[in-house]
Amino acid sequence: MKEAVQTPDAAPAIGPYSQAVRFGNFVITSGQIPLTPSGELVAETIAEQTEQVIANLKAVLAAAGTDLDRVVKTTVFLADMNEFSGMNAVYEQHFSAPYPARSTVQVARLPRDVRVEIEVLAELH
User: Fold this and answer.
1) Contact by Cβ (8 Å): 27, 91
2) Among 24, 53, 57, 59, which lies 20 to 30 A Cα-Cα from 12?
């Protein structure tokens, strides 16, 4: 049975979806964008936006009962693939070997015209 995960410590859902869903031994997050828990947009560099996205992911995963060390798959959506190295520099500070599987794609547009969105699949503790 699936169970919604919600926390006030991450950006609120801005549509009809859950911040994450627990299902079996896994939690699947919705894509997190660089909004603060109060809903304000972090609109500076790709590095700053990626930091906020990862902070949101950490909070959602903690609410689900897991953490970044249990992430097995990430999907990164970038508005501009030229910002890959800036995103990746922050990303690698938060994940350790063995690294999760990852897909990174450039998209035409992201919600609120942000630069980065990341979703993850993690095993529960």
Assistant:
1) no
2) 24
* Pure H helices in 36-118: 46-64, 84-94
> Structural domain of residue 37, as residue ranges?
2-123
In angstroms, what CA-CA distances link 92 with 40, 99, 118? 25, 9, 14
Q: How far is CA 82 from CA 18, 54, 65, 88, 102, in A?
A: 30, 20, 35, 11, 17
**30 pLDDT higher than 80:** yes
> Mind listing the pLDDT tens digit for each residue in 73-116?
999 999 999 999 999 999 999 999 999 999 999 999 999 999 99
71's enclosing H/E stretch is: strand 71-78
The total number of structural domains in the chain stands at 1
Nearest to 77 by CA among 109, 45, 42, 121: 109
What pTM, to 2 d.p., does this model score? Answer: 0.97
